[in-house]
Write a structure and sequence with these properties.
- The complex is a heterodimer of chains A (250) and B (187).
- By secondary structure, chain A is mainly α.
- Helix content of chain A is 57%, strand content 0%.
- Chain A is built from 12 helices and no strands.
- Chain B is globular and about 50 Å long.
- The interface between A and B is large, with 58 and 67 residues.
Chain lengths: 250, 187
């Protein structure tokens, strides 16, 4: 409780100093001590349970306070390291390729179909034999191959990442570095699992509040009050500070 | 580096976001009383107040990763509280008297009290004032509490409650007029 509202002296704000003093004297209730202890313990647990990013221990509190923006400073070296690892893999793969028996000359493109009406009949030539490749190098090459990802899968992966709640952003940043070394497919696996287990209401996580509102109101119009309430509850978790319009509640 | 007590609310919240538990303790110490009384005056039931109070702080803890200091921390915290109260009213409201809208402008239900014993005058005044506050229409009571429990400006109260500045001003004027009238025999 404060002595005076900050702009009370302007005369613009309705304020009564005597009344405020009387209220200060009267209103002295406080939360029970056990409630204090429970909340502080929960806050401590949550803070300690949070996985730390790779370089968090070395950051100063000022850097940590600066938030996600300052985390980007390790992303460039990390990207360079990832590129280096991939380059070494490709060079190794290329060397193995050169040590293999020379592959058969590639079949040339079939010539354009000649006009058979004018050409004389030609004898059928036997097809040249293509030497069989050794199976072992093939397997190792498969293992060394840089994982490919279709554009669609890439878009899906990006979308999955966007579905993460704001509360898990820091955790994702920490695990992102590890996932880079495992490859995009490894990164996709837990995201897909999360997508399968996530409730239907979580699907709108990255949408703006207005979209949430439209969905909630549509559900209410359809008489699906329970689903609308569930979606509203999910919205509250993700945007606790957002002012919910009255129309969403009816 | 400044101690937690020397840091602003917003800095403390950012520090807590970065894992500094002491920052949360200081933030909690600063705001627990005001928030608790804000909720208690609104729902008038200590058990419900405790439940809402805990929910709000836990929501704050869970949402810390997404916190950005775009406004005063108090505004952020009390907006969460306002939203939680609206949800609570919606689930449990059986009458219009629980609405936070300007639906009723009513006189305080309290009658004139007998002259209290002088020894207990101060305590009786406090009790009387709190009853007057509780008897205010919900929207006026909320504006009054936000002003007196969290040092909010008109603009900040407007941001928390989702109405415009002039509406807040009007609510405060009504609230003060009623409280003054109710206390006239004591002043």
């Amino acid at each position: 409780m404060t002595e005076r509202p900050r702009n009370a002296d302007s005369g613009d704000i309705p304020y009564d100093q005597g009344l405020a003093r009387a209220y200060r004297d009267a209103a002295r209730e406080a939360p029970p001590q056990e409630l204090d202890a429970a909340i502080r313990a929960a806050a401590r647990r949550e803070a300690q349970a949070r996985p730390r990013s790779l370089d968090e221990d070395e950051r100063s509190p000022d850097q940590a306070r600066a938030g996600p923006a300052s985390r980007r400073h390790w992303q460039v070296p990390l990207a360079l390291a990832a590129v280096l690892v991939l380059s070494v893999s490709i060079v190794t793969l290329h060397r193995e390729e050169t040590q293999l028996p020379p592959p058969a000359p590639p079949r040339s493109e079939p010539p354009a179909m000649p006009d058979l009406r004018d050409a004389p009949a030609a004898p059928v030539q036997p097809r040249p034999q293509v030497p069989a490749r050794k199976p072992a190098p093939e397997a190792s090459r498969e293992a060394m191959r840089v994982p490919e990802q279709s554009p669609r899968a890439e878009v899906e992966a990006r979308g999955d990442a966007a579905l993460g709640a704001a509360a898990s952003k820091a955790e994702e940043a920490g695990s992102e570095a590890r996932q880079l070394f495992r490859g995009p497919r490894a990164a996709q696996a837990p995201q897909r699992a999360a997508e399968q287990t996530a409730p239907a209401t979580a699907l709108a996580a990255d949408e703006p509040p207005a979209k949430w509102g439209e969905r909630i109101m549509a559900l209410r119009r359809d008489g699906k009050a329970d689903e609308a309430d569930a979606l509203l509850a999910e919205f509250r978790k993700r945007h606790p500070e957002h002012q919910v319009p009255e129309a969403w509640l009816r | 580096m400044p101690t937690p007590a020397e840091r602003s609310d917003e800095t403390l919240m950012l520090d807590y976001r970065a894992g500094d538990v002491a920052a949360f303790d200081e933030l909690y110490r600063r705001h627990k009383g005001g928030l608790y009384r804000y909720l208690l005056r609104q729902c008038r039931d200590p058990a419900v107040t405790a439940e809402l109070f805990q929910d709000i702080w836990m929501n704050l803890v869970r949402a810390r990763a997404g916190y950005e200091p775009t406004a005063r921390f108090a505004t952020y915290l009390y907006r969460m509280a306002h939203n939680r109260l609206v949800d609570h009213y919606r689930r449990h409201a059986h009458g219009a008297n629980l609405s936070l809208q300007d639906d009723e402008i009513e006189e305080p239900a309290l009658g004139r009290h007998e002259q209290p014993d002088v020894r207990y005058e101060r305590k009786a005044l406090a009790t009387h004032l709190l009853r007057l506050v509780e008897s205010l229409p919900a929207a006026q009571r909320e504006a009054f509490l936000l002003q007196h429990e969290s040092d909010m400006s008109l603009e900040e109260i407007a941001a928390v409650t989702g109405v415009n500045r002039e509406t807040v001003k009007s609510r405060l004027r009504y609230a003060l007029a009623k409280l003054r009238a109710g206390l006239s025999e004591w002043r």
